[in-house]
């Protein structure tokens, strides 16, 4: 379990503290505040703090309207307009701070999204816990034969058991050696900042990750996508559920125009027009590469 009884008691205590505030609050986010949502075998996501709501997005957008400019009276209509036309600044008025527990190799993917404030658990100062991500059987897959950065068929039987045994054995051995290298009574040992280099990439770390809604949507568009790696996708999907409760109108527009929408190239639009006229367009006559055509077919079919 990712949370100990001590951690659960601490979270309950945080949720039990209430204070009056004059600032805008989102009921859906208030219900989620501090709660740890479990992800993978030992990980979690929880909201530590947030600022703004759907109304804050509209407020920021309308402040730029000068005299005589047409105003949008309907908040949802305005938010959908902003999303549809890529007006990102109003969405930056909302911010959220997450506490995330995740495997190191997932953190290394996640940190590529550089538009956030991050503070990670220090393995120079503290000793990391003996917690490793071990994939469930339905997450063990061979290398894809068509995608150099994807998975193919599931491993089964003896092959799956062999891989799981390697993962568990190596993780345990590395941590045993990590502990053995640390300073103990009767020996100087190795500094924590050096001993940590022996730990595998599936060990868990933690961080606080703060970002604005515009950049969070960008993260979710990439990482909640079906093509994203499973281990980061499940974190993104959990965050999607949280954001849907926080800013339901903005998230609805995001689902429509970013998650559910597509961007077509000039060649793709030309092919669609030709198809609507009854022409049988093929990859050879489309002007697209095989990869582009395969993606285009995936969209239209």
TrEMBL record:
Keyword Transcription regulation in annotation: no
CDD domains reported in the protein's UniProt record: ThyX
UniProt binding sites for dUMP: 109-112, 120-124, 196, 223
Pfam families: Thy1
InterPro entries per the UniProt record, alphabetical: Thymidylate_synthase_ThyX, Thymidylate_synthase_ThyX_sf
E.C. numbers: 2.1.1.148
PROSITE patterns referenced in this protein's UniProt entry, alphabetically: THYX
Ranges of Basic and acidic residues composition bias in the record: 1-13
Segments of skewed composition (Low complexity): 14-26
Reported cofactor(s): FAD
Enzyme class, spelled out: transferase
Catalysed reaction equations from the record: dUMP + (6R)-5,10-methylene-5,6,7,8-tetrahydrofolate + NADPH + H(+) = dTMP + (6S)-5,6,7,8-tetrahydrofolate + NADP(+)
Keyword annotations from UniProtKB, A to Z: FAD, Flavoprotein, Methyltransferase, NADP, Nucleotide biosynthesis, Transferase
Annotated positions binding FAD: 89, 112-114, 120, 212-214, 218
Positions of the UniProt region annotated as Disordered: 1-26
Pathways per UniProt: Pyrimidine metabolism; dTTP biosynthesis
Cofactor details (free text): Binds 4 FAD per tetramer. Each FAD binding site is formed by three monomers.
Residue numbers annotated as active site: 223 (involved in ionization of n3 of dump, leading to its activation)
Family: Belongs to the thymidylate synthase ThyX family.
Function description: Catalyzes the reductive methylation of 2'-deoxyuridine-5'-monophosphate (dUMP) to 2'-deoxythymidine-5'-monophosphate (dTMP) while utilizing 5,10-methylenetetrahydrofolate (mTHF) as the methyl donor, and NADPH and FADH(2) as the reductant.
HAMAP family: ThyX
Subunit structure: Homotetramer.
Stated name of the protein: Flavin-dependent thymidylate synthase
């Amino acid at each position: 379990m990712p949370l100990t009884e001590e951690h659960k008691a601490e979270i309950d205590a945080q949720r039990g503290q209430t204070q009056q505030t004059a600032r805008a609050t989102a009921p859906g986010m208030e219900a989620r505040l501090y709660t740890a949502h479990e992800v993978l075998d030992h990980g979690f996501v929880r909201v530590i703090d947030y600022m703004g709501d759907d109304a804050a997005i509209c407020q920021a957008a309308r402040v730029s309207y000068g005299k005589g400019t047409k105003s949008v009276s309907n908040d949802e209509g305005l938010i959908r307009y902003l999303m549809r036309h890529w007006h990102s600044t109003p969405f930056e008025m909302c911010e959220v701070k997450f506490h995330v527990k995740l495997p190191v190799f997932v953190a290394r993917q996640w940190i590529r999204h550089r538009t956030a404030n991050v503070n990670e658990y220090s393995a120079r100062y503290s000793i990391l816990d003996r917690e490793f991500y071990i994939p469930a059987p339905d997450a063990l897959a061979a290398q894809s034969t068509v995608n150099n950065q994807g998975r193919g068929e599931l491993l089964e039987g003896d092959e799956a058991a062999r891989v799981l045994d390697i993962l568990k054995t190596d993780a345990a051995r590395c941590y045993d050696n990590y502990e053995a290298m640390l300073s103990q009574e009767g020996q100087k040992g190795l500094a924590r900042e050096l001993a940590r280099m022996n730990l595998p990439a599936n060990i868990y770390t933690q961080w606080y990750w703060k970002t604005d809604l515009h950049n969070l949507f960008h993260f979710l568009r990439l990482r909640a996508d079906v093509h994203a790696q499973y281990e980061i996708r499940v974190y993104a999907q959990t965050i999607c559920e949280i954001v849907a409760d926080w800013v339901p109108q903005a998230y609805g527009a995001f689902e429509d125009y970013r998650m559910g929408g597509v961007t077509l190239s000039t060649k793709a639009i030309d092919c669609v027009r030709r198809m609507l006229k009854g022409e049988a367009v093929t990859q050879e006559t489309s002007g697209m590469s095989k990869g582009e055509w395969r993606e285009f077919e995936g969209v239209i079919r």
